[in-house]
Amino acid sequence: AKWSQDLKEWWVQGAPLPWQKTVWTHLVRPAQGAIPAYSAIARFAADTGKEEKRYTGEPGEKIDIARGPYLIPVATGSVLFLSRKAGETIGFDLRLLGSDGVLAWQKKYEGLRLSVVHWDKVHRKLFVGVERRENNNVVASSLICIDPVQRKEEWRSEFGTKWPSQIASGTNNIYVIRNVPGGAKELIALQLKDGVLLWKKDFTSHDIR
Hints:
Elements: E1 11-12, E2 17-19, E3 22-29, E4 38-45, E5 51-56, E6 61-63, E7 72-73, E8 79-85, E9 92-97, E10 103-109, E11 113-120, E12 125-134, E13 137-147, E14 152-158, E15 163-169, E16 173-179, E17 185-191, E18 197-203
Antiparallel strand pairs: 1-3, 2-3, 3-4, 4-5, 6-8, 7-8, 8-9, 9-10, 11-12, 12-13, 13-14, 15-16, 16-17, 17-18
C-alpha cells in the first residue's frame, strides 16, 4: 500500500470520493455509552494520506441517505450531502461543504420525507423526491431540482398523492416512476430545464420494477 490512515474510533461508510489530488471520505463514530454517535466528512491528500480537512456534524446527526450517494462532487473541490437527525425519517438538511472544509451553504426541508435522490453529473443537478404523510398515507409529494453550483432550488414539480420512486435523466428530459395510491405506477417525462410535464404513461395491468 502507498499509504494507510488509522482512523481510530471512526469507521468509513460508503465509497470514498476522489477529487483531483484529494479524497473525500464519509466517517461515522458509533455511540459510546452516553456519548451520541457522530458523523463527519474528511478530506485526505491522495498522494500522502495526510488529513487536510474535517467537518464534524452535530451530536447524533446522520450524514446519510438511504437512496443515494453519501457524497456528491459539485465544483472546485466542494461536496454536497444530505443530513438528518439519527433515528428520524422526517425532515432533512441539504448542505454544501466548501473545498476549505467549511460549511458554505445549507437548506432545510422540514416535515418532509426523502423518497428518492438522483445526481445528474452531466448537468450537475440534484433531483430530490420528497413526500408528506398523514396516518402513513401520502398527502403531498414533489420533485425538487437543485443547482448546487448556484446554491438554489431551481424548480419544484408538485405530484399530489403520487410519489416519485425512481429517476433517470436524459439530454433534455428527466424521467420519473411515480407510485399511485392503490398500487399502480406511472412513467412520466418532465422538461429538465423547468420541470414542466411533457407526457405520462399509466401502468395498471402490469408492474414496473
